[in-house]
Design brief:
Mean pLDDT: 80
Structural class: mainly beta
Distance between the termini: 31 Å
CATH class of the largest domain: Mainly Beta
CATH topology of the largest domain: Jelly Rolls
Strand order of the largest sheet: 1-20-17-22-15-14-13
Largest sheet: 7 strands, antiparallel
Shape: globular
Number of helices: 0
Number of strands: 23
Order of helices and strands: EEEEEEEEEEEEEEEEEEEEEEE
Low-confidence stretches: 4-9, 260-298
CATH architecture of the largest domain: Sandwich
Radius of gyration: 18 Å
CATH superfamily of the largest domain: Jelly Rolls
Strand content: 35-45%
Length: 298
């Protein structure tokens, strides 16, 4: 894969590099519902990993969700570079040299490869406190989406964006939707999309495909309904209109595929569940372009 910064030796310490590739054919649509999530122990104690995508080779690419194991209130993620993450629940502690920080839930972070001599970030995943101020533990207490190998070597901008900040929302591609641009570099775009009403649209942000993680609510297309925790990767032939229940929130990425899939193929979803899509009014829209956007860090 061209212009990707990760090497096999730079994979995160919690990831087993001997794992076989998973969903490594970018021409095939992948739908992973939460009901079929395969959580496995990570190589670091106290962590469990849900592997979404693993593409091997000289420039490996990995997409996962990480959570705390039962009875665990905090677990080390080790020293990490070339990471893109969204804190879904709990918080992440970050230590780089003498600097320490805490990243709360719904924070979006990009950590490209550091310049030579710079201190790499050491991360830990911790449970959020309950209403009484007591620490929680276990799988429901902390959750993070994390990807490595997606950041181009030429993309050196760090990001730390609070996605709960209301002022960051912009009008969406159609009435009843809003977008929050998070990052843009070259062909790659990252954003949050939320539905204020039951409307549908077909994104046209990039000709290579899209990746979606449902963070809240329920997403729909002609093939089915996708609740919170569903991860979807659509190549070009599988593109169609998205709709969502009011309040639906998705984490959306496009332009980070290495090569255009075969547009003559008609890929099928990897899960075989039969589901019924909802009926909405569809609008074909050019979408909101975050390409090249420079967003001030939170």
């Amino acid at each position: 894969m061209s212009d990707r910064s990760t090497t096999a030796s730079a994979l995160p310490g919690w990831f087993d590099p001997d794992l076989p590739p998973l969903h490594d054919d970018l021409a095939v649509r992948v739908v992973l519902p939460p009901s079929e999530a395969d959580w496995q122990p990570a190589t670091r104690p106290g962590l469990e990993v849900r592997l979404l995508e693993h593409i091997g080779g000289d420039s490996p690419r990995v997409s996962v969700q990480l959570r705390l194991a039962a009875g665990t209130e905090s677990a080390s993620l080790g020293t990490s570079v070339d990471l893109e993450l969204l804190v879904e629940r709990g918080e992440i502690g970050c230590s780089a040299g003498e600097d320490e920080d805490v990243w709360p839930a719904r924070l979006y972070v990009r950590l490209p490869v550091e310049e030579e001599g710079a201190s790499a970030a050491t991360l830990s995943l911790s449970a959020e406190e309950d209403d009484a101020g007591e620490g929680r533990d276990g799988p429901d207490a902390a959750l993070v989406y994390l990807a490595t190998g997606h950041i181009a070597a030429s993309d050196t901008e760090r990001r730390r964006i609070d996605t709960t900040e209301p002022s960051r929302w912009l009008p969406g591609p159609v009435a009843g939707t809003e977008v929050m641009p998070l990052h843009g570099h070259g062909t790659s775009n990252v954003m949050m999309i939320r539905w204020l009403g039951a409307v549908a649209f077909r994104p046209r942000l990039d000709p290579l495909g899209e990746e979606v993680l449902v963070v809240a609510g329920c997403l729909h297309d002609a093939d089915g309904d996708y609740p919170v925790g569903t991860w979807i990767r659509n190549p070009v032939p599988a593109w169609q209109s998205w709709s969502g229940d009011p309040g639906t929130l998705v984490y959306y990425k496009s332009g980070h595929f290495a090569a255009s899939p075969d547009e003559e193929s008609v890929p099928a979803a990897t899960n075989s569940s039969e589901v019924t899509g909802s009926t909405t009014t569809t609008t074909d829209s050019g979408g909101a372009d975050a390409n090249g956007a420079r967003i001030d860090d939170a």
